[in-house]
Amino acid sequence: MSKVVADQALVIAGKTYRSRLLVGTGKYKDMDETRLATEASGAEIVTVAVRRSNIGQNPNEPNLLDTLPPDRYTILPNTAGCYNAKDAVRTCKLARELLDGHDLVKLEVLGDEKTLFPDVRQTLIAAEELIKDGFKVMVYTSDDLIIARELEAMGCVAVMPLAAPIGSGLGIRNPYNIRFIVDELKVPVLVDAGVGTASDAAVAMELGCDGVLMNTAIAAAKDPVLMASAMKKAIEAGREAYLAGRMPRKQYASASSPLDGTFFS
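Above: the chain sequence. Below: its structure as tokens.
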């Protein structure tokens, strides 16, 4: 009997989660679709762009938290749209105020409007300041192992390298870099950006990632609710495949049913 590798729970900032799929809340046609897709995904952590979504700062507009209540989901405020450390830190502080002291945030500091690649230098500055101020920082970053090490060393609770440009749907373009980071870091490593369909999510998990965060891949699908369900299954299948351990790749064929020991051999 083959050995079964025991899975370890996903733990972020001391809290345990069953689902390894994290989802965004933007780009849906309305709040109802947001709710239905989130439910279908099985996600327990939902990320919210504080600069683009109302979580209480506009009392006369619909509040996203009425659709995705904090007593059911872990709300993960993010700094999408910030292009320097100062704006990112300010955005996190606003989120903490609006969410009654909530300190888990997703930091992203962008460096280029076309690719939405991270500005690594500004990210490091913001991460250090936020951590000193008591925030628990999950950080969007490049697929650079050296930077990932530095972010872990300064105290980030999760490192989230991109797999391809945000919203591109190109899939996992950098599997070797992602694997280097997964193999070395002790904090959770989650793919953030680039997933386009269920097979991409499965590949990320087969690489050993602790989870995947996605938004556009679900929200921009023809049927977002059905895609959310597909992503849930892909994450689970990819994780199981990683734990099972794939067969080695071979240059030549190897019969599934060997001839040795058969009646006519």
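Residues 15 and 74 are 10 Å apart (CA to CA).
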